Amino acid sequence: MISDPPNKPMDNDDFDELDAILDDLRTRGDEVPQWEFCEGAMAALVCSRRVIMPSEYFPVLLGLEADAPADGAPAEPEEGMTRFADAIQAGRFMELWMRRWNEVAMALNAEVETLEDENCYHPEVMDVRGAVLELSDEARAEIGDQELPAFAQVWALGFMFVVENWAEEWAAPRDKEAAGWLNDALDAIVSLTDDDTDPPAFSMHSEDGPPSVSEARMNTFGGAIWAVYDLRELWRNLGPRIETVRKTETPGRNDPCWCGSGKKFKKCHGLH
Fold this sequence. Notes:
The chain has 272 residues and is mainly α. Helix content is 46%, strand content 2%. The chain contains nine helices and two strands. It has helices spanning 12-26, 35-46, 54-62, 87-109, 128-133, 137-143, 153-165, 176-191, 215-238; strands at 200-202, 213-214. The chain has a two-stranded antiparallel sheet with strand order 1-2.
């Protein structure tokens, strides 16, 4: 199989393929998320304060074991564990994941003035409610009263999943202005995790389609995208957290040695 170039733009077929792989993983681990959730998690990982490696985040996000390699060579499946079907599937997933990662990183590094800018970050999100409204009466009847996520709600949940699981990387900085910037940005994304209860005004599928997304929701969505840019800029300016190094006191020459030998320090480790 010929691999796609790492900078090849993602298209609908690529996202459908990612969804299909996740669907297959879900047969071996029912907590594997949908792609929209992964898309939100990816955005958070890209703009996280510290570079978090795939070997660290995939076990948490997809339920893979910590020792499951992310280079396309997974171990044999174990009962109850989420595993790729084979090395080919794992390799293809990583190829598509990194292509999307590069797209998101490039977009968040770009200087954009409006959300309509072609270089702006555009999350891959679904308007599930709108899609259901366009189904036939029979198809909608099969769905029944099943609760459907609001527009971009799953994306925001994926973003906050990373924030909550790597809370130390999202801790408020000491600088009050920076801390306020962080809180405002996260609040904007958290707002998107709420349901859309306002009157629907837009269809995300067609101009004359049945409305399914409120005007307030679209404003909240736009605010969340700008919040991601703010977070990316904030952590890029502050850099990774620096752990405080505390110097331990050296025992006196006649004090008991710290190793617990019972000897005086000068006759034990103090000799070295």
